[in-house]
Amino acid sequence: MKDVVLIAGDGIGSEITDSVTKILDKAGAEINWVERSAGLGAHEESGNPIPADTIEAIDEHRVVLKGPLTTPVGSGFRSVNVALRQKFELFSNIRPARTLPNIDSPFKNVDMVIFRENTQGLYIGKEQWIDDDTKTHAEGIAVVTEEASKKIITAAFEYALANDRKKVTLVHKANILKLTSGLFLDIGREVAKNYPDVEFEDLIVDNMAMQMVMRPERFDIVVTTNLFGDILSDLASGLVGGLGVTGAANIGDDAAMFEAVHGSAPDIAGQNKANPLALLFSSVMLLEHINQKQIAENIRKAIYKTLVEKKVYCTPDIGGEGTTSTFTQAVCDNI
Ligand code: NAI
Ligand code: MG
User: Which of 328, 286, 317, 258 is nearest to 68 (CA)?
Assistant: First the structure.
């Protein structure tokens, strides 16, 4: 049995985590869920959006499945998601996008995994006004280091090897950003030499955006810096049905957090309408991460089978006439 910290989160969080734990249980996953709280609910209960015993549990067990957390807009506490990524140095954000049966999309045969550097680039928050009085001139700083670049690019190649993938595409803008993007590209070329069996190519980001729409089937593993990865990973989700049907992982050297990319959906909370699919795909990634790969594959197959009868069993957001419960039961029956 593997101990995994489970944070249900806010809004639809408890409905979709209930669904996911039921399905994993049915599939025979060897997981002991260690339930902890975080987010707005935790804040209201204990005055702290990340209670100390949640941090302690993550410290101890190092693997987390997390539902969506409500972040108050404007004032109030800062994003728990960002805080957890920083505290546990979860430097790679991994987002697979794979064509799903019976999900509307003009794009076919998409099967790519995007590795986004999660801690640097333009997202470090170093921005300032140059003319503080008039506020007509702002500047921002992008940071790229050899160490962080090597880590994310190596993670992409290691994933390619472990999952029998053939090609890594590095995305950059080194023609213009000669130092920051140039460094990332140089390190990619160096790291690629250690993996002679994996094909390596690099593409400039604007060309990449076009190619992803023209010929998405040609991409396998993609690795890039923070800002480009943010944009391209949502683009990739859009190719296969959107954020509601794609999972995500944040992985570091010695901790990993799996989460859905959508939010807490307060408009439908408590109505048995929430689609557990995104969190379920994240939990499939979790199972692969803790080496329960056969169970992951069995769940994936059961999901695909359920999607074929989407109208009957699935939730309205993807065109079904079912509920959270009918979807959960159907996936369990198909395992
Ligand atoms: P949202 O993703 O919660 O909702 C946007 C729309 O998508 C809503 O109409 C909602 O009903 C629908 N939706 C989302 N997930 C769904 C699901 N699983 N099944 C069916 N429909 C679904 O985004 P919104 O409204 O901007 O944010 C609400 C709260 O969530 C905010 O407090 C925000 O900060 C937080 N949030 C948290 C994230 C996280 O924990 N990773 C990510 C994004 C937002
Ligand atoms: Mg984003």
Answer: 258
Q: pTM of whole model > 0.90?
A: yes
User: Whole-angstrom Cα distance, residue 95 to residue 113?
Assistant: 6
Is residue 193 annotated as a catalytic residue, yes or no? no
| 8 Å CB contact between 203 and 171 | yes
123 given a catalytic annotation: yes
Q: Who contacts 326 (Cβ-Cβ below 8 Å, separation ≥6)?
A: 312, 313, 314
User: In this structure, which topology does domain 105-240 adopt according to CATH?
Assistant: Isopropylmalate Dehydrogenase (3.40.718)
Compute, in angstroms, the gap from residue 194 CA to the centroid of ligand 2.
31
Beta bridge partners of 111: 98
Whole-angstrom distance, CA of residue 2 vs CA of residue 205? 40
Q: Confirm or reject: Cβ of 274 under 6 Å from ligand 1.
A: yes
Q: What is the pLDDT of residue 74?
A: 65
Ligand at minimal distance from the CA of 230 is: 2
Give the separation between CA 123 and CA 117, rounded to whole angstroms. 10
Dump pLDDT digits (tens) for 230-246. Answer: 999 999 999 999 988 99
Residue that the structure tokens 């359920």 belong to: 306
Per-residue pLDDT tens digits for 95-114: 999 999 999 899 999 999 99
Domains of the chain, residue spans: 1-93+244-335, 105-240
Fold match, 1-93+244-335 / 105-240: yes
Looking at domain 1-93+244-335, its CATH superfamily turns out to be Isopropylmalate Dehydrogenase (3.40.718.10)
Residue type, 44: E
Residue type, 105: S
pLDDT of residue 82: 80
Helix (H, G, I), strand (E, B) or coil at 197: coil
Cβ(204)–Cβ(150) below 8 Å: no
